[in-house]
Amino acid sequence: MAGGLVALLDDIAALAKLAAASLDDVGAAAGRAGVKAAGVVIDDTAVTPRYVVGLTPDRELPIIGKIALGSIANKLVVILPLALLLSAFAPWALTPILMLGGTYLSFEAAEKILEAITGTHDADAVAEITDAKALEKRQVLGAIRTDLILSAEIMVIALAQLPADMSFVTRAGALVLVAFAITIGVYGVVALIVKMDDIGLHLSRGGATGAVAGFGRGLVTAMPVLLTALSHIGVAAMAWVGGGILLHGLEEFGVGAIPHALHHWSEVAGAATGPLGGVVAWLVYALGSAVAGLVVGAVVAGLLHLIPRKGH
DSSP secondary structure string, 162-225? Predict the structure, then answer.
């Protein structure tokens, strides 16, 4: 028993030394992986504020805290073990999983546009709920479900950027850093966004005068515009990221006609615009990715709307 305990302690010590020696590698790998997942992060940040619609101001930050904890659980408890297992035993499955997630994001974007066209909105269902606890539970669960898809995309994208010969410990450490850094960043920004009007009211009514009070009133005035803009950015980001993932997946499977054509058009547009060439090339490719995502999303949405629903 004692020998087994000593051996276990030796193993733990060796693992700790390995982790310490690999800390720089972990940080560098996490940085590379996190940058590649930035598109989905924008999407996550733009989408989340809608889940506090209809809640009282004093419950906004606790709700965001619950969603953030759910997001960490999604990444570390559900996604990380599965991603590491897949990368070790079935790396071929990562691209199809990414493409499924891209299809879902594309569907979400198309569905939001369809809602805007037909005048049916999820907010209408939210407004009908009068029980505060039921509303809170609904919003938290809905946000965590959406976050599961977005977090899966973030973690799998991050994993795909790590070298194949990287050690298991370094790979896992990098993904843990990505999970915490992205979750803290996303939900920190979301918390700031949803409390911006309260900050503005405090600045304008707290006895401040001049520029400070004017800045506070500006924050209050800007909030409706910002939230509307975020809803549009969220839809655009879902289409762009989803379409981009699908196009990249097609290239991975050797079906590269559309992605190659889009790359060509973006390069031509970039070459024709001189100093702005890099920005224009990126915009053309992003727009093309968004169009591809919306086409796929519209097809999925159309098929789902043809399926009879219970009670109809």
Answer: S-TTS-HHHHHHHHHHHHHHHHHHHHHHHHHHHTHHHHHHHHHHSS--THHHHHHHHHHHHHHH
Residue pair 197/214 in contact (Cβ under 8 Å)? The answer is: no
Cβ(143)–Cβ(67) below 8 Å: yes
73-117 pLDDT, tens per residue? 998 998 889 888 888 888 888 888 888 888 988 998 898 888 888
Burial class (CB in 10 A: 0-12, 13-18, 19+), 131: exposed
CA distance 135 to 104: 25
Residue 208 corresponds to which tokens in the numbers above? 């401040």
- CA of 124: how far to CAs of 23, 115, 121, 223, in Å? 49, 11, 6, 21
CA distance linking residue 49 with residue 139, whole number of Å: 11
Closest alpha carbon to 242 in 184, 303, 288, 180: 288
What is the longest distance spanned by two Cα atoms in the chain?
74
Let me know the angle formed at the C-alpha of 76 by 70 and 81, rounded to the nearest 5 degrees. 135
Distance (Å, whole) CA 291 – CA 110: 10
Q: What is the pTM of this model?
A: 0.70
Q: Where are the alpha helices (DSSP H) in the chain?
A: 2-21, 23-36, 38-47, 57-73, 80-89, 94-118, 122-127, 132-160, 168-194, 196-205, 211-252, 257-271, 277-306
- Measured CA to CA, the distance from residue 16 to residue 22 in angstroms comes to 10
User: Pick from 148, 86, 109: which is nearest to 297 by CA?
Assistant: 109
